[in-house]
Design a protein that fits this description.
Pfam families: COX2 (PF00116). Its main location: other. This protein has one helix and eleven strands; from the N terminus they run αβββββββββββ. The protein is α+β, with helices and mostly antiparallel strands. The longest helix has 26 residues, at about 5-30. It has two domains: about 1-35; about 40-155, Sandwich (Immunoglobulin-like), CATH 2.60.40.420. Strand 3 (about 70-75) and strand 4 form a beta hairpin. Bound molecules: dinuclear copper ion (CUA). Dinuclear copper ion binds near residues 78, 104, 139, 143 and 147.
């Protein structure tokens, strides 16, 4: 088959542009690694329930740290442990969370708390909650058939 000279040039140019485009996408998507943006350290996700502090989920008052409370959270299809979190208004809280199975989200609607929980990684968020209220925690990563039913409550009390 005879290919016209210019046609051939455009073919090469088109293919080259496509490769450059894919490289840019690939590099920008993965240069920071594929782990979630809040992740601080790794964990064996099959043994989460045996590894501290995840062997003791819940709200813990702490002393001598930059935060007043530690909220230890374990997500699994399709619920959170604990189901309900209660913290005093104005306190600084360190949320540490992970998952025992698939990717889940931990988004507290109406606040700046929004973590992605990926198996094998521990996510962390330190924040101050300064408004009394009952906040809904939702899973914002599709995780399976029970995804829409996966929620819990954060109570900020006076
Ligand atoms: Cu868990 Cu969606």
């Amino acid at each position: 088959m005879h290919i016209h000279k210019y046609e051939k040039w455009w073919l090469v140019f088109g293919t080259g542009t496509l490769i450059v485009f894919l490289l840019i996408i690939g590099v920008s998507a993965f240069h920071a690694g594929t782990h979630p943006n809040n992740s601080k350290w790794t964990i064996n996700y099959e043994k989460v329930n045996e590894i501290a502090p995840f062997d003791n989920p819940g709200v813990h008052k702490v002393e001598g740290k930059d935060w007043d409370y530690e909220v230890v959270l374990v997500a699994s299809a399709f619920s959170y442990n604990p189901m309900e979190i209660e913290i005093p208004v104005g306190s600084t809280v360190r949320f540490i969370a992970t998952t025992t199975d698939v990717v889940h989200g931990f988004e507290v609607a109406g606040t700046n708390i929004n973590m992605m929980l990926e198996p094998g990684y521990v996510s962390e968020k330190i924040t101050t909650v300064d408004k009394v209220g009952e906040y809904t925690v939702v899973c914002n990563e599709y995780c399976g058939t029970g995804h829409a039913m996966m929620y819990s409550t954060l109570k900020v009390v006076d």
